[in-house]
Design a protein that fits this description.
single chain, alpha/beta, 4-stranded parallel β-sheet, 8 strands, 19% strand, globular, binds iron/sulfur cluster, 2-thiour_desulf, DUF523 domain-containing protein
């Protein structure tokens, strides 16, 4: 049975920068949980960020630029936390590979976990299309990433993967 990497703050653990969690009410989630598929992981806490912590945003480029060393991640107070965010992305990939996950469901909007939108680096609450650094790292290594509003699509892909593995014998 294939596992699913999920943001540690999704449905129950208050790990976000503001010490909250992201609630989720879904039969798919409940089923995955009962089946033991969920691999909960918070990349930021895994590299030592405290809860709560200052909000951070990608500044001067995309998540890909952060991985390439040509954009930064900064906290609202101006602190450069780029290297820790890159390490957090690497840890997420390591955890995903170690657990053999089929895909990931991560919280959108985060500079780490976002997969369709992130904040624009101005700390004014404006969001733009984009990905967080860990989501980018996972995708680059062939692990599909969905956000918490895409559980049905994620479940469909998971079912298709398992079906194809069954047929391959
Ligand atoms: S890094 Fe990801 S898992 Fe951790 S609190 Fe932020 S959104 Fe949640």
């Amino acid at each position: 049975m294939r596992k699913v990497l999920v943001s540690g703050c999704l449905q129950g653990r208050a790990l976000r920068y503001n010490a909250t969690y992201v609630p989720l009410s879904s039969l798919i989630w409940d089923r995955w949980s009962t089946e033991g598929r969920l691999v909960r992981f918070c990349p930021e806490v895994a590299v030592g960020f405290p809860v709560p912590r200052p909000p951070a945003e990608i500044v001067g480029g995309t998540a890909g630029d952060v991985l390439a060393g040509i954009a930064r991640v900064e906290e609202v107070n101006g602190a450069d936390v780029t290297s820790l965010f890159r390490l957090a992305a690497r840890r997420a990939l390591d955890r995903a590979v170690e657990a053999g996950v089929a895909l990931a469901v991560l919280v959108d909007g985060s500079p780490t976990c976002g997969s369709s939108v992130i904040y624009d680096g101005s700390f004014t609450g404006r969001s733009v299309p984009g990905r967080g650094v860990a989501a980018e790292e996972l995708l680059r290594h062939g692990i599909p990433v969905f956000h918490e509003g895409q559980l049905q699509q994620a479940a469909a892909m998971l079912a298709a993967m398992e079906e194809s593995e069954r047929s391959a014998g």
